[in-house]
Amino acid sequence: MSNHTKVKQLPESERPYEKFLKYGVESLSDAELLAIILKSGTKDLNSLEIARMLLSGGHGNLLNLFELSFEEFLKLPGIGKVKAIQLKAVAELSNRIAKTNSGYHISMKCPSSIAAYYMESLRHLKKEFLICAFFDAKNTFLGDSRISIGSTSYAYVSPKDVFKRALEKNAVSIVIIHNHPSGDPSPSEDDILVTKRIREGAALLGIRLSDHIIIGDNRYFSFAENDI
């Protein structure tokens, strides 16, 4: 006979839905929040047990939702395609909410604000991504564009693509941002060379390269702050 306990068989104080209604969303643990999203379990695991499993290993917290790929989710007990899609959607929503909130505070003259805006979306990636952010004459953020995707240690950069996007946006200034999957944001010789090439090319078009920011694991490197 199975010892499996369904969520509805748990004491009321331990059931996520009941806790939400009685005490509010702030009272729920990370596992309980995930259990509500998962909705149901399997014949062997209830939704709360699956949620706790998702939070164990790796970072041991909600960052696992970013780190695990769709395919990796499917290998976990109790996670099928629908639940895997839901979990990745939740991770992406949280990332977009964070970016939307920080977007109001992004400033071309403040590298830390730019780093904060891109930190969560870039620091978990296992390949290098290069993004260009655009600003007008009043330093207003005009949006960004993904320029290239590379390998775990290199992202090919075409200055031509950077300038084309900048001209399309009518940008006066640009900031290029890319991540280091190693977590160490220290610039490589290639990073320094690419920055120099883009700065010189942009100047010929009347566009200013204001900064190049490298995103690491909760750390960043700003060429402007370091006078490079």
Q: What Rg is obtained from the alpha carbons, in whole angstroms? A: 22 Å
What is the assembly state of the chains in this entry? single chain
Widest sheet, order of strands: 2-1-3-4-5
Looking at the overall shape, the CATH architecture of the largest domain is 3-Layer(aba) Sandwich
**Poorly predicted tracts of residues:** none
Total count of strands: 5
For the termini, the CA-CA separation is: 68 Å
Give the amount of beta strand, in percent. 5-15%
Order of helices and strands: HHHHHHHEEHEHEE
Commentary on this structure:
The model has no long low-confidence stretch (mean pLDDT 86). α6 runs antiparallel to α7 (111-122). The protein has helices at residues 16-23, 30-38, 47-55, 64-67, 70-74, 81-103, 111-122, 159-168, 189-204, and strands at residues 129-135, 141-149, 173-179, 208-215, 220-222. By secondary structure, it is α+β, with helices and mostly antiparallel strands. It contains nine helices and five strands. Helices cover 42% and strands 15% of the residues. Strands 2-1-3-4-5 form a five-stranded mixed sheet, sandwiched between helices. It is elongated and about 70 Å long. The termini are far apart.
Notable characteristics:
228 residues; alpha+beta; DNA polymerase, domain 1; Cytidine Deaminase, domain 2; 2 domains; 5-stranded mixed beta sheet; 9 helices; elongated
Write the layout of secondary structure elements.
Elements: H1 16-23, H2 30-38, H3 47-55, H4 64-67, H5 70-74, H6 81-103, H7 111-122, E1 129-135, E2 141-149, H8 159-168, E3 173-179, H9 189-204, E4 208-215, E5 220-222
Parallel strand pairs: 3-4
Antiparallel strand pairs: 1-2, 1-3, 4-5
